[in-house]
Specification:
about 25% strand; Creatine Amidinohydrolase; binds 2-amino-4-trifluoromethylsulfanyl-butyric acid; binds cobalt (II) ion; globular; alpha+beta
């Protein structure tokens, strides 16, 4: 069942989303060679709680940390630990915040120091794919329009979309209907209607699209070991177009191009 939200609830999701964006930017400033992902998790946890929020991932289906941090070939749900971040790595910070009963979700892949040109292209394409998906998040369109737009950008650039992981409705619960795949046919799937709030989140790889689940039950990495990128925004479907509820001020955000 898709839960459509009214203006007041969307504003509350937007307040949670503002804190999500601030958290991502704050953690991003602290990413440098040597910092452990567990330290970054503590920084996020404190930052969120000091502002009255709760990290939604903590305890979600037994997840043990405040946020997910996925390095290099890890696509999603990396568990922060004592591993130090290394120069040249890709580090995805994926944050959910519950604030005043509302939930927002966003992710951003940071480059640590200097990365090679192909890695940078992977990040740029993933942001471009998110922007394309958001651009289709309009009344009257269908979920498949978003999915298809993401897929065209990613595969057109020679990269792969992960098929076994999807975006999702969000707001009242962390994961609501509908699924928002990153591939598919335009014109198919649920119609987008006013008040829907969805997390659009291309998860892409430099190589093959297959992924595997590690023994910890969470970490999902590319099967071929190739690098992955993940950018995500929570977006509301409104009469005047998509409204990004998780703006990330202070980090370069190609995915906001062309949105109010
Ligand atoms: N933000 C993540 C997503 O959209 C949620 C991870 S659930 C967790 O899939 F429990 F792993 F945190
Ligand atoms: Co999500």
């Amino acid at each position: 069942m898709i839960i459509r939200k009214g203006p007041a609830e969307i504003d509350r999701i937007g307040r949670a989303g503002a804190l999500v964006g601030e958290t991502i930017a704050h953690v991003g400033q602290r990413i440098e060679p040597g910092v452990t992902t567990l330290e970054l998790d503590r920084i996020a946890d404190e930052f969120i709680r000091a502002r009255g929020g709760v990290p939604t991932s903590q305890g979600y289906k037994g997840y043990p940390r405040a946020i997910c941090i996925s390095v290099d070939d890890v696509v999603v749900h990396g568990i922060p630990d004592e591993t130090g971040v290394e120069d040249g790595s890709l580090v995805t910070i994926d944050v959910g915040v519950t604030l005043d009963g509302a939930i927002a979700d966003s992710a951003y892949t940071f480059a640590v120091g200097a990365i090679d040109a192909e890695s940078q292209r992977l990040l740029d394409v993933c942001q471009e794919a998110l922007a394309a998906g958001i651009g289709e998040a309009r009344l009257g369109n269908r979920i498949g329009d978003i999915s298809h737009a993401v897929q065209v950008v990613v595969e057109g650039a020679g990269f792969s979309v992960v098929k076994s992981l999807v975006g999702h409705g969000v707001g009242r619960h962390y994961h609501e209907d509908p699924h928002v795949p990153n591939f598919g046919d335009a014109g198919r799937g649920p119609r987008l209607s006013e008040g829907m709030t969805i997390a659009i989140e291309p998860m892409i790889t430099m190589g093959r699209p297959e992924v595997w689940l590690a023994e910890d039950g969470w970490t999902i990495a590319t099967s071929d070991g190739s690098l992955a990128a993940h950018f995500e925004h929570t977006v509301a479907i409104l009469p005047d177009g998509p409204r990004i509820l998780t703006p990330r001020l202070g980090v370069p955000d190609l995915s906001r191009m062309g949105t109010p």
